[in-house]
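User: Reviewer 2 asked us to show a designed sequence for the structure in our supplementary figure. I'm pasting the structure tokens here. Could you produce the per-position amino acids so we can include them in the response letter?
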């Protein structure tokens, strides 16, 4: 899930591709638009056409860029075997004198190396990409390289890469990237049981969401802050934050009735259930978990993010039985 989300951001805005000009240029731009919208089947077909058009035009660099993207989409679809010949073609024709083709190719090569050769080899490629972009102020692609590096590292190294990505987002002045990367850092810090630092990261996310005036992201950020407060042992503060966030989510659901709003009601109810469970009130926790489950169903989570529902069901079974109660962390699909 995380890798797919990273892929969706892997078409840079750094190297502008316009729709006028050669056919291969137009098709590459069209493929990128499908890619950003996660229309992967359409992107695949369009990138293939771009690669063929570039071959007809004799443009090896654009052909390499398009071939790298074909391989990328095959990786997203889980068909690495189909993508490898396309990646080989990109590697053969890309040169470091052409930034667009070179960076697309390195990024895709790292993805395939992670699958085939392991994390250490992939990390070397993502590091090479990061260094290349850093020297040329290609901030968006450097962010992507750093973000991918967090997927092939552990512990403090992982946190360092997350902070490098944030530094590039700061240099680019890109609040959308800041929002994504600070969110990622918050979860990485929680994974390392650095709960106070995780809470501070989510407070930064909240400030960015407020600056963007994005109500959905504000709702999500407030939930993350409340969750992090609970994990940091600040139960009273967590309850206050989550109750306030739940009220906003319910108001939005009454007004709009969207699946997205139903989902955040569910996350808030689950968080309140965890607070009840942590204070020994299992019956109250089970009621809240049951209500959360109903809202998850309204949000079509069983189809869109089945792991979230499975984890909640496991938690309900844990509380209802004789299994020792553990402190429920947030599942990654809600992150």
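Assistant: Here is a per-position design you can include in the supplement:
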């Amino acid at each position: 899930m995380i890798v797919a989300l990273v892929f969706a951001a892997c078409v840079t805005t750094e190297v502008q591709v316009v729709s006028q000009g050669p056919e291969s240029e137009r098709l590459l731009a069209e493929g990128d638009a499908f890619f950003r919208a996660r229309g992967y089947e359409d992107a695949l077909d369009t990138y293939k056409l771009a690669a063929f058009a570039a071959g007809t035009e004799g443009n090896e660099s654009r052909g390499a860029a398009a071939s790298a993207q074909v391989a990328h989409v095959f990786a997203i679809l889980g068909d690495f075997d189909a993508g490898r010949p396309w990646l080989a073609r990109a590697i053969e024709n890309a040169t470091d004198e052409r930034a667009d083709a070179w960076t697309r190719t390195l990024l895709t090569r790292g993805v395939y190396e992670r699958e085939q050769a392991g994390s250490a080899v992939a990390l070397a490629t993502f590091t090479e990409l990061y260094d290349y972009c850093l020297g040329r102020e290609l901030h968006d692609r450097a962010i992507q390289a750093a973000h991918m590096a967090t997927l092939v590292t552990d512990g403090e190294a992982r946190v360092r890469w997350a902070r490098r990505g944030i530094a590039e987002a700061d240099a680019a002045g890109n609040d959308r990237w800041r929002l994504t990367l600070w969110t990622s850092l918050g979860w990485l810090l929680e994974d390392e049981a650095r709960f106070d630092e995780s809470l501070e990261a989510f407070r930064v996310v909240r400030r960015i969401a407020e600056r963007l005036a994005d109500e959905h992201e504000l709702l999500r950020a407030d939930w993350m802050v409340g969750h992090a407060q609970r994990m940091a042992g600040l139960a009273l503060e967590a309850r206050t934050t989550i109750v306030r966030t739940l009220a906003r989510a319910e108001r939005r659901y009454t007004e709009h009735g969207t699946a997205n709003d139903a989902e955040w009601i569910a996350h808030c109810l689950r968080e309140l259930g965890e607070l009840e469970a942590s204070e020994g009130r299992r019956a109250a926790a089970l009621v809240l978990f049951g209500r959360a489950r109903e809202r998850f169903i309204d949000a079509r989570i069983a189809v869109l993010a089945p792991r979230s529902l499975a984890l909640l069901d496991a938690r309900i079974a844990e509380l209802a039985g004789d299994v020792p109660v553990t402190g429920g962390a947030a599942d990654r699909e809600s992150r």
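For the response letter, you might also mention the following. The domain at 1-145 is CATH 1.25.40 (Serine Threonine Protein Phosphatase 5, Tetratricopeptide repeat). The radius of gyration is 22 Å.
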